[in-house]
UniProtKB/TrEMBL annotation:
Signal peptide (residue range): 1-24
Keyword match Signal: yes
Species for this entry: Handroanthus impetiginosus
PANTHER family the UniProt entry points to: OS01G0690200 PROTEIN, WALL-ASSOCIATED RECEPTOR KINASE CARBOXY-TERMINAL PROTEIN
Annotated ranges, domain Wall-associated receptor kinase C-terminal: 175-249
Name listed for the protein in its UniProt record: non-specific serine/threonine protein kinase
Coiled coil: none
GO CC entries: membrane
InterPro entries according to UniProt: WAK_assoc_C, WAK_GUB
Localization in the cell: Membrane
Keyword Cell membrane: no
């Protein structure tokens, strides 16, 4: 074989190697799940583990269905509805606010803040703080307690008294008893401002609307490895396990993991073509 022939063989070989990645049909799931969720309000580029809207359940993880309505993104966690204000896919953090307390310090139903601990946790380094909201309080006749940490609600035309407490000003005054109490995290700056005597119902509402940080757990490590290998993360509904969608097919963990026949056949073809 002289140099010219060798060069020709090399060029043909390279061309044949390049062709399959251009004309081959991309894996359907890979293609579908590469689409991020359509923009909702200020939030865009939403990928795994989130799904809903234009993203199939197989593109996300169970428990991460998002709903976008009038530019408001919502996520249900253990039957509590949250507004999603921010998504950081580097730190796997979400900033969420309770939908029932959005622009409303007087919910009709009193529920504590709770997460599904299988897939969420409070973000440990966020420095958020729980405050407590006490509803339907009774101030007995002999009580001399006056607290600036109060707000009122109108319940069926009657005014109810309510109080909010932070770590710094814990404890209702003497002679104050309340019908219900709930706990909600707010950021530390907000908690400090709320503990000052100069506090107000507006500050309370701002703190609740600003939300708090939570972290998600949805095979995060697997997903990082899959993405690094050029894949798109997803979930196998039938098998109930993580999936890595790659341009050729679905892999278990990463695009370069244990080839299952297909890959070997392909590379053999290339070798045959070259020679
Ligand atoms: C988008 O962000 C801007 C500034 O950050 C804010 O003023 C605006 O209200 C946000 N819009 C929505 C729909 O959240
Ligand atoms: C992560 O965020 C970046 C920038 O916002 C975006 O380009 C990327 O598609 C996101 N990835 C996923 C998996 O959501
Ligand atoms: C969602 O993905 C499943 C496979 O996991 C598929 O059977 C189904 O047809 C897909 N649905 C849509 C709307 O693409
Ligand atoms: C979230 O919960 C609300 C109220 O319970 C319900 O109407 C809605 O359908 C739920 N959304 C999803 C995606 O489950
Ligand atoms: C919590 O999340 C896991 C995983 O998605 C799910 O199997 C379980 O049903 C959820 N629990 C509740 C109470 O929503
Ligand atoms: C995600 O959080 C990290 C660490 O706090 C920060 O450096 C990064 O800018 C954030 N990314 C986005 C898209 O907000
Ligand atoms: C919220 O949790 C606190 C402390 O666990 C409890 O005392 C209170 O009754 C709970 N509130 C509701 C409405 O369940
Ligand atoms: C707030 O209270 C919940 C329990 O009601 C607890 O799991 C969580 O760690 C608390 N958050 C902070 C920031 O103290
Ligand atoms: C509520 O707070 C205001 C000041 O913000 C105070 O004047 C008033 O006495 C308080 N009411 C009660 C019931 O503590
Ligand atoms: C009212 O509160 C005071 C404490 O401030 C208490 O000593 C008294 O027993 C209470 N009275 C009633 C009727 O609950
Ligand atoms: C804390 O919440 C307040 C609203 O109460 C907001 O103005 C502020 O930007 C928040 N700070 C951080 C660090 O998120």
């Amino acid at each position: 074989m002289d140099a010219k022939l060798l060069l020709l063989a090399l060029i043909i070989g390279l061309a044949l190697l390049a062709i399959p990645s251009c004309v081959c049909q991309y894996d359907q799931q890979y293609q579908a799940c590469s689409q991020t969720l359509l923009q909702c309000g200020n939030i865009s580029e939403i990928g795994y583990p989130f799904w809903g809207g234009n993203r199939n359940a197989s593109c996300g993880y169970p428990g991460f269905e998002l709903n976008c309505q009038n530019d408001v993104l919502r996520l249900n966690i253990s039957s509590t509805v949250y507004r999603v204000l921010d998504i950081n896919n580097t730190t796997q953090a979400l900033r969420v606010a309770r939908d029932d307390l959005w622009d409303d310090t007087c919910p009709r139903v009193f529920t504590n803040t709770s997460l599904n601990s299988t897939i969420f946790n409070y973000f440990s380094t966020a420095n958020d703080q729980n405050i407590s909201l006490h509803y339907g309080c009774n101030i007995n006749q002999t009580s001399t307690a006056i607290s600036p940490y109060n707000f009122s609600c109108s319940v069926n035309g009657a005014i109810s008294w309510n109080f909010f407490l932070t770590r710094e000003n814990s404890g209702l005054g003497n002679g104050i008893t309340c019908a219900a109490v709930i706990s909600v995290p707010v950021n530390q700056t907000a908690a400090w401002a709320l503990a000052m005597p100069t506090t107000s119902t507006n500050l309370l509402q701002d703190a609740l609307n600003n939300g708090f940080l939570i972290q998600w757990f949805a095979n995060n490590d697997n997903c990082n490895l899959c993405a690094r290998s050029g894949g798109v993360c997803g979930y196998n509904q039938d098998g109930g396990s993580f999936s890595c969608y790659c341009s050729d097919r679905t892999h278990e963990f990463t695009c370069d993991d244990n080839p299952k026949g297909n890959d070997i056949a392909l590379s053999n073809n290339h070798r045959l073509d070259v020679y």
